[in-house]
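Dear colleague,

Thank you for sharing your sequence with our group. We've completed the structure prediction you requested, and as agreed, I am returning the results in plain text so they can be pasted directly into your records. Please verify that the sequence below matches your submission; if there's any discrepancy, let me know and we will rerun it promptly.
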Amino acid sequence: MRVSASGLGSNVKRQGTGALVSDRIQEVAERANVPEDFVQQLVAAGGLPHAEAELGSPRAVRRARLLWSWREAGLTVETVIALVNRGALSLAFLDAPVMDLPERLDRSYEQLAADRGVPMSFVHALHQSLGFAAPEPGDRAGEDDATMLEVAELFRGAGAGDDATLRLMAVYADNLRRVAKAEADYYETNIERHFRAAGLDERQLIELGTQLGDRVIGLLERVLLMVYRRRREHVWTEHAINHVEEALESSGLQQRVVQPPAICFVDLTGYTRLTEERGDEAAAEVAGRLIALVNDISRRRGGRPVRWLGDGGCSTFGSPGQPWSPASTWSSAPLWSICHQSMWASTPARSSHRTATSTEGL
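Please find the predicted structure tokens below.
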């Protein structure tokens, strides 16, 4: 059902060209998953073009989504448009290729769930596991939603429970959120701050970020995929070795090493004082140098870094005189648990520092 276009003047009438504009308003609202009356408000205020061809562009959809999110954050449409018109703010970054979003399907979430044979509650749970708000059943689903449901269906067919799949998706989401946040922090601290100090205003900073983003985001995504694939190769190689190990033991040809590996805990003395005296940035730089140094030393001695938390971390090593390998222990999972629990247990007690490096053979 279409919302009345009254209030938009002669630009939006349900006759001739006006009807096409009204159709475009409804289309933009559905593709952006925002209320139709909000899109009408944007057109009336000049936040979106009145022309039918321009109104149906991906740029209009991105602008509607952005302005809706800003409205939800307490910024009125009129305020944002006034800043743009004065030249104090730029929305040019919306035209950058990196802002492209997955296309919307011609089906609602409810219809997509029915097609996939899953309840809407699972669709809600899937979005919540990713850290997103649960969609309304009538909202238009996206291509990415169909992909995630297909993944869940494949895992379900292989015998995995939906709860386990949701936990896996939550791991993806949490770590990718941290990656995205680290990128933004890096840009703000190392690039934007420099140009702000040089006198660039907000509009110029946004335009600079758009130009740099066009050039670097594609490369960063390739780096992310490369790192993921190399990590995945390493992990699945270990998994395959465990299968060989199981076969050797079950055949009686070889027994596993029962001696557990050693774990080295490392903690930086004076980190809290350094943070208080020189600030978070300086402390983070020192911690980063420590991480690089310890990781390099442990790898050269047959160890493997397991986890870092601020200024503390741990590495695992195989049996004395034997480099670490999957065959040296039943599973690396207990090592993760030991390091995780030990480091979290020590986190609140940062006021009483341990020595610069301490080790325990467990």
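Summary note from our side: The CA atoms of residues 130 and 173 lie 5 Å apart.

Kind regards,
the structure core
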